[in-house]
Amino acid sequence: MKNPDNTPFTDANGSNNNNPQGAADANATHTTDTTIVAAPMESSAQAEADDPASAETSAPTSAGASATAPTATAPRRRWTKTLIAVPILVVLLVACGCAWAWQTRWRSIAVTVNGQRLEISAGMTVQQLMSANGDFNARPGRLLALDGTVLNDNGGDPASFTIDNRQVSPADWNSTRLPGDATVAVASGADVTEGHSTEYETVPRGVSVNVTGGVVQMVQSRGKDGKREVWVGDVSGQRVEKDVVEQPEDAQVVGVSPHPEGRNVIALTFDDGPSQQYTGPILDILKDKGVKATFFDVGTYSLAYPDEEKRMMAEGHEVASHSNTHAYLPGLSRDELRSELSAGLQNMQQASGVNTRMIRAPYGAFTADQWKDAYDLIDYNVIWSVDTKDWELPGAQAIRSAAVSGAYNGAVILMHDGGGNRDQDVAALPGIIDDLKGQGYEFVTISELLQMVGASAAPAEGDGAASDSGASASDGAGDGASGDGSASSSAASDSATMAAAASAASARQS
Ligand SMILES: [Zn+2]
């Protein structure tokens, strides 16, 4: 509220000091002079009327409107400045943003990709560049199996991307932006072959057989199996043979023709027994003459006539194997061969406790193939050097002449105590022994003969014979009865087959 008129106050102030209002007027006049835009309020005016002195003090403590009144112009200026500054700042920011965006995004830059110059937006990522250009025909490598077949068309190394010769991992393609003037190389990924584990498989040893002229064939060394590396594919499971890391060593089978130096020894041998009819009489003669011989027994006959075989053992003769059923061994498969040999050995052991790894193959038929299939089952295959041809039933005198005329130091004489009519063997034997004794011969078993020349087979590995045994053990006795007939004809062939070899051996010895 403004004072309506300054004049009356001035007049009153000067003319009438008694007027209580005068003091107020005078005071009012004073304030009027110094306050131009003040808007006295009722409370202030009342205070002036009551106490002039309070006017100055009351004003600052009065209600807000009158207190702020003196400084109200400053905020308005700041607001004005703000209203001007904010748009400027915004404009500046937008300008800066645009400049930044221009620099980093909107403008075009040039890059050279695989020798080709391309204009691209600044800020383009590797991934965007690749996607926009069909990956520049770069493909991931393939995942290959061990044998080279494709397991996965995209399973190999990823395509490679280099910026100025610096490789950018595919994981960084989305976050890596291309700089201007970059030289980029994009290439397909390499094929990758699957991982593998390594195993080893056995490379079976061979058997080297060199028995030419040997009366006794013997495993001189066992050799050893080799070892081959095999890769097994982690994904495909393929097994691929790699290098042989341990070469196998062949077993060695050699022929031995013993001629004990300074001795005059001879070995009598009897095949195809034991028999109930002839083994006993022959053992009687040997016992009477004090002579040791070697018997090659058929396994089935051992079971059939165990007492005869036990007597051979008890009287100091050597007992070895003549197979289980007198089979023609080269006619058998590997498994059949091993079964035939093992069963023969086992049946003898069962019948009389014979424990041997010495055989005489029926008909002397035992080639390098049989040795390869069974070198681990036996130590010796004993042939002969003097064939009495008793199987031809030439008469006792002829048998006696053949034995004596063919004799030499270390000779092995073939006769029979089973498998047919052996009457002539029984009849001839005493004269043979007498004649040979007369020539100064000493009778030895095969093992004794071999010992005299220091020939012994390499130690067996493990228990090979036992592992194959048992296959034919139960049928041994059953075959015994019918076996006689076949053994008889076998005995004939036995000698016939080996006649050439035997005579060759004899001739060489003579
Ligand atoms: Zn025979």
UniProtKB/TrEMBL annotation:
<feature type="compositionally biased region" description="Polar residues">
    <location>
        <begin position="1"/>
        <end position="21"/>
    </location>
</feature>
<dbReference type="Pfam" id="PF01522">
    <property type="entry name" value="Polysacc_deac_1"/>
</dbReference>
<feature type="region of interest" description="Disordered">
    <location>
        <begin position="459"/>
        <end position="510"/>
    </location>
</feature>
<dbReference type="GO" id="GO:0016810">
    <property type="term" value="F:hydrolase activity, acting on carbon-nitrogen (but not peptide) bonds"/>
</dbReference>
<dbReference type="InterPro" id="IPR050248">
    <property type="entry name" value="Polysacc_deacetylase_ArnD"/>
</dbReference>
<feature type="transmembrane region" description="Helical">
    <location>
        <begin position="83"/>
        <end position="102"/>
    </location>
</feature>
<keyword id="KW-0479">Metal-binding</keyword>
<keyword id="KW-0472">Membrane</keyword>
<dbReference type="GO" id="GO:0005975">
    <property type="term" value="P:carbohydrate metabolic process"/>
</dbReference>
<dbReference type="GO" id="GO:0046872">
    <property type="term" value="F:metal ion binding"/>
</dbReference>
<keyword id="KW-0378">Hydrolase</keyword>
<keyword id="KW-1133">Transmembrane helix</keyword>
<dbReference type="GO" id="GO:0016020">
    <property type="term" value="C:membrane"/>
</dbReference>
<dbReference type="InterPro" id="IPR011330">
    <property type="entry name" value="Glyco_hydro/deAcase_b/a-brl"/>
</dbReference>
<feature type="compositionally biased region" description="Low complexity">
    <location>
        <begin position="54"/>
        <end position="74"/>
    </location>
</feature>
<feature type="domain" description="NodB homology">
    <location>
        <begin position="264"/>
        <end position="444"/>
    </location>
</feature>
<keyword id="KW-0812">Transmembrane</keyword>
<feature type="region of interest" description="Disordered">
    <location>
        <begin position="1"/>
        <end position="74"/>
    </location>
</feature>
<dbReference type="InterPro" id="IPR002509">
    <property type="entry name" value="NODB_dom"/>
</dbReference>
<feature type="compositionally biased region" description="Low complexity">
    <location>
        <begin position="459"/>
        <end position="476"/>
    </location>
</feature>
<feature type="compositionally biased region" description="Low complexity">
    <location>
        <begin position="23"/>
        <end position="39"/>
    </location>
</feature>
<protein>
    <submittedName>
        <fullName>Polysaccharide deacetylase</fullName>
    </submittedName>
</protein>
<feature type="compositionally biased region" description="Low complexity">
    <location>
        <begin position="484"/>
        <end position="510"/>
    </location>
</feature>
